[in-house]
Amino acid sequence: MIIIFFQVNSVFAINPDREYIRTPDSVKWDYQQLDIHTTDGFRLNTWIYEVKPENDKDIVLILDYPDAGNMSYFVYHSMILANSGYTVVTFDYRGFGKSQDFEIQKEYLYYKEFAWDLEAVTNTIFNKFHDKNVGIWAMSMGTIIASRAYPQIKNQIDFIIGEGIVTDLDEIMDHS
């Protein structure tokens, strides 16, 4: 029973990783590293994967990942998308990867500050790529973050793709 208890509870916990398992240059992909600052002063590490000009679909895709790891876990996903013609932007939430430190209580489901992180990234990317469509690929906890950020970013994005959509926070909290 104890093992099952900890397995179930770990599903609803934030588990950041400060170390990168790979980088875009480790797979020989051209990218730009960009520091983005949030309105409350946090520095976020961001990678922009360059698209090959002959494949460019004029779409920028911001990856808003789940509650574990960091953006380095999505290097292969990003490379495949960039190879298919999408400019891909990955970022680390505060307290994840090489972004600025942030005290995280691992038993939390998410932090409202993560929505501020997505807002800062979206604002910067919208201004940098004003001639392209901008969308968000939100995964699991990222769907909560995208939903919370949406009122502030709705005029800067053209679409959201939600994977593993969290629809009822009360239900999750009742079963955790």
UniProtKB/TrEMBL annotation:
Protein known as: Alpha/beta fold hydrolase
Keyword Hydrolase applies: yes
Record flagged with keyword 4Fe-4S: no
InterPro entries, per database record: AB_hydrolase_fold (IPR029058), Hydrolase_4 (IPR022742)
One MF annotation (Gene Ontology) recorded for this entry: hydrolase activity
Gene3D superfamilies per record: alpha/beta hydrolase
Classification via Pfam families: Hydrolase_4
Stretches assigned to the Serine aminopeptidase S33 domain: 81-161
Organism: Negadavirga shengliensis
Protein keywords: Hydrolase
